[in-house]
Design goal:
Keywords: DNA-binding. The protein has helices at about 5-25, 35-40, 45-50, 55-70, 85-100, 100-115, 120-130, 135-145, 155-170, 170-175, 180-200. It is mainly alpha-helical and about 200 residues long. The protein has two domains: about 1-50, Orthogonal Bundle (Arc Repressor Mutant, subunit A); about 60-200, Tetracycline Repressor, domain 2 (Orthogonal Bundle). α4 crosses α5 and α9 runs antiparallel to α11 (about 180-200). The model has no long low-confidence stretch (mean pLDDT about 85).
């Protein structure tokens, strides 16, 4: 890697970390690109060179958080492994993300920001939805392999996300409840697996 490229990467990382700190401390609307630039120790022009808008920067942060936590558990459908075992790994990765305080803090920021702007809400949901494609692709592959009954892939994916988030996301976001304990995570996963597979497994 050349020195200019390395410097550019370092600046980008500094901008993202500064933005995380500012969004967590002040929320979306009260965070400015000027403040992010000052906290990162770079010019505002440098910030805009990397990120055309505050929305783009915020979306990048959410994507990076998701990727850093779930990358090790990207599950590709395997016809020689039991469905329950594969799906359990997917849900464990999901719960690791939902237990991460950085992700929860920034999700609160995103939801608060979205309430005041329906268009922003649609954009953020669409961006986050891209990161849930792994489960959708897995369900589609299992269906094609004849391991699942006829189903609407998108609805089935939403159902299993809902089973998890009703315990491990919305109570923490809206009611300030602590992340699930390891024992409770296991119980939630096993229950979700039972409900999903009992209904859909061929």
């Amino acid at each position: 890697m050349t020195a200019p490229k390395r410097l550019t990467d370092l600046k980008r990382k500094a901008i993202i970390q500064a933005a995380i700190n500012e969004f967590r401390a002040n929320g979306f609307d009260l965070t400015s690109m000027d403040k992010i630039a000052a906290t990162a120790g770079v010019s505002k022009r440098t910030v805009y060179n990397h990120f055309p808008s505050k929305e783009e920067l915020f979306a990048e942060i959410l994507h990076k958080l998701w990727a850093s936590i779930s990358a090790q558990a990207e599950i590709t459908y395997r016809s020689n492994v039991p469905l329950r075992e594969q799906l359990e790994q997917l849900l464990q990765a999901k719960l690791r993300l939902l237990a991460d305080e950085n992700f929860l803090d920034l999700a609160r920021v995103a939801i608060a920001a979205a309430i005041h702007s329906p268009q922003r809400a649609q954009d953020m949901v669409a961006r986050l939805g891209e990161r849930e494609e792994g489960l959708t692709a897995w369900i589609r592959a299992a269906l094609a392999d004849g391991q699942l009954k006829s189903l609407d892939v998108e609805i089935a994916a939403q159902q299993i996300h809902g089973l998890i988030k009703s315990f491990a996301f919305w109570p923490q976001i809206s009611l300030g409840q602590p992340p699930l304990t390891a024992d409770m995570q296991t119980r939630v996963i096993e229950s979700a697996l039972d409900m999903f597979l009992n209904h859909y497994q061929a």
